[in-house]
Amino acid sequence: MQLKEVAATALVLLLATVAFTTIGRAEGEAPECNETDAEICNNATCRCSSTDVPGGFDLVDVPQFVVLSFDDAVTVSSFPFYETLSTLKNPNDCNIKMTFFTCHESLDYTLVNQLYRMGHEIATHSVSHKADVQNYWRNMSIEMWTNEINDMKTMLTLYGNVPADDIVGFRVPFLEVGGNDMYQVLLDSGFTYDCSWPSLEYTPWFIDGVDGPKGTLWPYTLDYMSIQDQTVGTKPTESFPGLWVAPMTDLQDNRGAPCPMLDQCVSAEDELETSADAVADLLIRNFRSHYFSDRSPFGVYTHHSWFLADTNNNVTARHDGFRMFLEYLAELPEVYVVSVNQLIQWVQNPVSLEDIDDFFQCSNTLPDNCPEENHINCVYTAPLPIDNLQVYMNICEGPCPDEYPWTGNPTGES
């Protein structure tokens, strides 16, 4: 499909989204999910927020899922690390899968394409990733959410040749959950899930007063009011039928404090910067709290920038510790490292550990739809929508857009 044809299609979809937003808005608060509702809302398109194991399996029959995700741009400096991790295997001898929540600035679209063809999931993380949480992300309109979410999807398709139908997930910058407006745009735009919502109370280790742990939430839909605690951003109160939430279960760092993302975990001294054993121990300790309790999904969510501390400190502690953790997982026959979307697919149609090998079958590398001879590195100079004098954008094929693509103008039309 030519660039102009894709742009026209994207514009039609955007107009349809805006039109539906104005007439299809959910009204009133979502109902709470009672016992009867939970029996009805228990299928591939509806699941109440719950700590119950999907499928009702005994714990011994539940696969232990581990989800790895990386936020922000994929670049020439981060890609070799991702490529190395991609060689690791699940118990069925298939390569592990990861999710990449991408944003536009500094993104190498040719490398995103390569990750996609390797079988990893490509998701959106906004176009701008503006740093102003108070004045920007907490004051978003429907139109602004649409531009941030849909325009990033459009650019991944236009410049990275990632099929739009395979871009189904979103994570908001700074985990600043945007309440009803954000979820309305995701629903109207045909996204499958959001993975932006941290949980402290629903972790294997959190104890509130005299009560023991509540258990850990599995992915659920927003048909009914969520029981999940809200630690960041604004909780949705309306019903968004069929839209999934993949909760981000907090880790517990070495001081005992919660950290929804690995790079937010802090150590008592500097051991997470200098000791591979300390990094591996942190991850293994948190993993074991899931593995030996309820077999709930264990997520490790981070940015590649966290690993750059190794370069700055002239050590390899974080890279080595992360890999030691994954090698530990590889020795456990119940553990499968999957993308966020793969986890949701299992929750939609759960199978026991005995049948999991058939559920997650190996996939071959997809045909090259971004050949190197067609790559073009587009160069743009000030004035730009970002505070740079010059910016590069490496894409699968030309021609380069007239202007640097941005929110509200993903095709870069002049």
> What is the CA–CA distance across the termini?
21 Å
Order of helices and strands: HHEEEHEHEHEHEEEEEEEHHEHHEHHEE
User: What's the gyration radius in Å?
Assistant: 21 Å
Taking pLDDT < 50 over at least 5 consecutive residues as the criterion, the unreliable ranges are 1-26
Largest sheet: 5 strands, parallel
Helix content: 25-40%
* Helix segment tally: 12
Q: How many distinct beta strands?
A: 17
Average predicted confidence as pLDDT: 92
Write down the overall geometry.
Answer: globular
Please, could you describe this protein's structure?
By secondary structure, the protein is an alpha/beta fold. It has twelve helices and 17 strands. The strands form six sheets. Strands 3, 4, 5, 14 and 15 form a five-stranded parallel sheet that branches. A four-stranded mixed sheet has the order 6-7-10-9. Helix 5 crosses helix 6. The chain starts with a helix and ends in a 19-residue tail after the last strand. Mean pLDDT is about 90; it is low at about 1-25.
Give me a quick take on this structure.
The protein is α/β, with parallel strands linked by helices. Helices cover 30% and strands 15% of the residues.
What characteristics describe this protein?
12 helices; five-stranded parallel beta sheet; 414 residues; 15% strand; alpha/beta; four-stranded mixed beta sheet; 17 strands; disordered N terminus; 30% helix
